[in-house]
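User: Quick sanity check before I run a bigger batch. Here is a single chain. Can you write out its predicted 3D structure?
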Amino acid sequence: MNLKLKIWRQPNKDSKGGMVNYSIEDVSPDMSFLEMMDMLNEQLIKSGDDPVAFDHDCREGICGMCSMFINGEAHGPDKLITTCQLHMRKFKDGDTIAIEPFRANSFPVIKDLAVDRSSFDRIQQAGGFISINTSGNTQDANAIPIDKHNADTAFDAATCIGCGACVATCKNASAMLFVSAKVSQYALLPQGKVEATDRVLNMVNQMDEEGFGNCTNTGACEVECPKGISLENIARLNREYIWATAKG
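Assistant: Done. Predicted structure follows.
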């Protein structure tokens, strides 16, 4: 396939960026989207141009690094996949593809398509963990009975990879789906009950400090989430937060 690419180029968060046009030829439909980007960068390097900066790591749909807005959709036109799992057969010969970074004030551009999502790390550090006794008298987690429904729901929440598609898609740049997934992951399990109150208060407070917007129940976050994280987690987060606030 021969394609036309319109890619956002920006040296850093303080510089003005803009769309730059590129052409690329002989793209195999079996290539992943990131392999196509690699091919473009090899072409740019050979011609003495600056390659396009973009995040990537595992390329297996696990790490959440490959955050790109492709033709107006987070991770591209396919559903329940990350950018690295998107294949070029989703496009046609002669197509024009617009590629932009995830846009949110809390995700400042590092360069080109790479954004700083360390705000998510700080939210995690505020409460996305459990403290356990490791004195040698610790109970085996497999020996703790857990309701099957709760275990399954917690696992579903834990599949969140923190890619930020929910924030980039939300008209308010809200991080509620991400935070609710992390809160739900522990709220449903006995290991997470000990710090439940502090966890939800600290994580929500940190989310607000990072400058994320409010949730208005549009639902776009769930639609574009590559792991299909449910809006039910946001409802659970709200319940946990109200309970924690009332508790004191």
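The two ends are 61 Å apart (CA to CA).

User: Great, the batch can go ahead then.
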